[in-house]
C-alpha cells in the first residue's frame, strides 16, 4: 500500500468515525471467511457496516475525532463495526458474539462517550431508532383513536335506538 492509498484509507476512516452513531471494536482472530461474510451481511441488513483496517491507520484517523478514546482498543486483529443508528451496530455485534466465541468485543464509542464491553452490551439492549419511532407513533395515535371512538359511539347508539323504534313501529 503506497502513501496515497494510506492517506485515502485514513480519510475514509476519519469520515466513519465522525458520522457514525456508534463504533464497536472487536477482535476477530480465528473467524473464517464465511463467518465474517455472515457478520457483514447481518450488519448490512441492520444498516451498518464492518471494516477491517490497519490499527496504525485507524489511530491516525482517530486523532481529533469525538471517539478518539477507542484508540486504546486498536491492538491485534481488530474489526470496526459502525452504523448511523446509535444502537444497530452494537446489537448485531453482541448477537453475533453470543453465537461465536471467536469474536471478542473490546469496546467502542457512542459519539464522544467511550464504551467498554459492558457498555456496548448495554447499548445493544436499548431500542433501535425504528422501535422508538414506532412506540412514539403508537403513543400519539392512541388518544386520537380513543377520541374518534368516543365521538362515533353516540352516533352508533342513536342509530341502533332509531332502528329499534322503527322495528317496533312496523
Q: How would you sum up this structure, described in words?
A:
- With 170 residues, the protein is an alpha+beta fold.
- The protein has 2 domains: 3-126, Alpha-Beta Plaits, CATH 3.30.70; 127-170.
- 58% of the residues lie in helices and 16% in strands.
- It contains 6 helices and 5 strands.
- The chain has a 5-stranded antiparallel beta sheet.
- α4 (88-99) crosses α5 (117-124).
- The mean pLDDT is 84.
Draw up the topology in text.
Blueprint: H1 3-19, E1 22-27, H2 33-45, E2 48-51, H3 55-62, E3 78-83, H4 88-99, E4 104-110, E5 113-116, H5 117-124, H6 129-169
Antiparallel strand pairs: 1-3, 1-4, 2-3, 4-5
Give a quick precis of the structure.
This protein is of the alpha+beta class.
Distance between the termini: 94 Å
Which residues form runs of ≥5 with pLDDT under 50? none
Content of β-strand = 15-25%
Tally of discrete structural domains: 2
Keywords for this entry:
alpha+beta; 170 residues; 6 helices; 16% strand; Alpha-Beta Plaits
Amino acid at each position: 500500500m503506497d502513501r496515497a492509498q494510506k492517506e485515502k484509507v485514513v480519510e475514509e476512516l476519519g469520515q466513519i468515525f465522525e458520522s457514525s452513531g456508534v463504533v464497536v471494536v472487536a477482535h476477530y482472530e480465528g473467524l473464517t471467511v464465511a463467518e465474517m461474510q455472515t457478520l457483514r451481511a447481518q450488519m448490512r441488513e441492520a444498516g451498518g457496516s464492518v471494516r477491517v483496517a490497519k490499527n496504525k491507520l485507524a489511530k491516525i484517523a482517530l486523532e481529533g475525532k469525538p471517539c478518539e478514546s477507542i484508540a486504546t482498543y486498536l491492538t491485534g486483529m481488530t474489526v470496526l463495526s459502525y452504523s448511523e443508528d446509535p444502537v444497530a451496530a452494537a446489537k448485531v455485534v453482541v448477537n453475533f458474539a453470543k453465537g461465536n466465541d471467536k469474536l471478542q468485543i473490546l469496546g467502542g464509542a457512542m459519539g464522544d462517550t467511550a464504551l467498554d464491553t459492558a457498555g456496548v452490551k448495554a447499548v445493544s439492549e436499548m431500542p433501535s431508532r425504528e422501535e422508538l419511532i414506532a412506540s412514539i407513533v403508537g403513543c400519539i395515535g392512541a388518544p386520537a383513536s380513543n377520541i374518534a371512538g368516543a365521538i362515533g359511539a353516540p352516533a352508533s347508539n342513536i342509530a341502533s335506538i332509531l332502528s329499534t323504534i322503527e322495528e317496533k313501529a312496523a
